[in-house]
């Protein structure tokens, strides 16, 4: 997985110390954020969210993602290398490695053979859309989600619910939430689907439910200090996204057939840039690749067609249902608050759950 990550990010691995993966846009902001976090974690800043930008504004760190969880990996990398750019690049490479490792463990827990689990790891870690999101560390940092889901599965399988699995689930969930609010929302959707399916299938006993509620309260208490400054900034400056902006920035069904221009297999030469006065080109390349699409269809079929797992046991239909419903929920929510239909005067908005 590490070798694949280095190949995936080439040629940056040849210039680890003097280039930053993703260019000079968001990556420089995220690199500054990570360095500020190191400044705070090493005891050199009296207040975390009162960062050294936008003086005399307060809580200026809350103008963007705080990246606190990423800093827990960035700090030792920076201490070892003494080079901010190199530490950042290694951190980006680690997101691919850890995403793949977490997916491998989940796949093995679900009963997949080693080759199938390795394929799952590669598909999850090197999902085509991740190439499009290279400049956004907070989007790439989804590595704690599969670890959280792994220990949730282990917790739900055992009776009574083991404390060690619950503690690991809580810890990895906290890392997921503190990586980005985007990751927190994805985690919440997966958790909600898993708990709902377990309740309706009568596999979630009262003890399990009480322990999960307790874990939720612990997570709420630990994340509240990180969330409060964002609500404060939002209220102070009336920072909101309008319904129209949310609709514009949401996915469309056709986006799932579109790949980034830089994709060697499915990409196409970039179109002509918009001319003066033309609206900016809307780019949402979300095509997951043929391999992923076919395997997702096979996974859905496994709910209705008996399959023999190569690892020696059949994955529980409840767990397959969790994964299938999570995929459907993710697809539906990606379309945003409403799906435009038609053009011109015939254009209507179809309301959606988001």
Question: What does this protein look like?
Answer:
57% of the residues lie in helices and 2% in strands. By secondary structure, it is mainly alpha-helical. Helix 4 (84-109) packs parallel to helix 8 (144-157). It is globular. The two termini are 35 Å apart. The mean pLDDT is 87.
Average of pLDDT: 87
Rg over alpha carbons: 22 Å
What order do the SSEs take from the amino end to the carboxyl end, as H and E?
Answer: HHHHHHHHHHHHHHEE
Distance between the termini: 35 Å
Strand content: under 5%
How many strands, which pairing sense, and closed or not: the largest β-sheet? Answer: 2 strands, antiparallel
Q: Can you count the helices?
A: 14
Helix percentage = 55-70%
Strand order of the largest sheet: 1-2
The low-pLDDT segments are none
Q: Based on Cα principal axes, name the global outline.
A: globular
Structural class: mainly alpha
Strands, total number: 2
């Amino acid at each position: 997985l590490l070798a694949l990550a280095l190949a995936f990010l080439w040629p940056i691995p040849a210039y680890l110390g003097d280039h930053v993966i993703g260019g000079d846009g968001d990556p420089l902001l995220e690199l500054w954020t990570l360095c500020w976090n190191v400044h705070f974690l090493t005891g050199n800043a009296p207040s975390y969210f009162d960062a050294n930008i936008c003086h005399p504004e307060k809580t200026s760190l809350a103008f963007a993602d705080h990246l606190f969880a990423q800093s827990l990996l960035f700090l030792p990398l920076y201490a070892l290398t003494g080079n901010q750019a190199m530490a950042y690049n290694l951190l980006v490479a680690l997101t691919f490695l850890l995403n793949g490792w977490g997916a491998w463990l989940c796949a093995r827990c679900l009963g997949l053979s080693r080759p199938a689990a390795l394929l799952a790891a590669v598909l999850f870690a090197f999902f085509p859309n991740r190439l499009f999101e290279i400049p956004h560390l907070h989007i790439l940092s989804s590595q704690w989600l599969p670890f959280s889901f792994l220990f949730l599965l282990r917790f739900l399988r055992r009776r009574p619910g083991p404390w060690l699995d619950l503690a690991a689930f809580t810890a990895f969930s906290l890392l997921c939430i503190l990586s980005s609010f985007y990751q927190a929302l994805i985690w919440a959707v997966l958790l909600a689907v898993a708990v709902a399916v377990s309740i309706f299938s009568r596999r979630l006993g009262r003890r399990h439910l009480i322990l999960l509620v307790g874990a939720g309260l612990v997570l709420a208490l630990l994340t509240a200090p990180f969330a409060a400054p964002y609500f404060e900034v939002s209220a102070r400056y009336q920072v909101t996204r309008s319904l129209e902006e949310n609709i514009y920035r949401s996915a469309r069904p056709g986006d799932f057939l579109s790949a980034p221009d830089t994709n060697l297999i499915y990409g196409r030469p970039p179109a002509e840039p918009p001319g003066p006065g033309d609206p900016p080109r809307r780019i949402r390349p979300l095509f997951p690749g043929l391999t992923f699409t076919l395997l997702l269809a096979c996974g859905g079929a496994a709910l209705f067609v008996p399959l023999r797992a190569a690892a020696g046991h059949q994955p529980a239909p409840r767990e397959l249902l969790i994964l299938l419903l999570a995929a459907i929920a993710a697809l539906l929510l990606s379309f945003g608050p409403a799906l435009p239909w038609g053009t011109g005067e015939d254009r209507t908005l179809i309301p959606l759950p988001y």
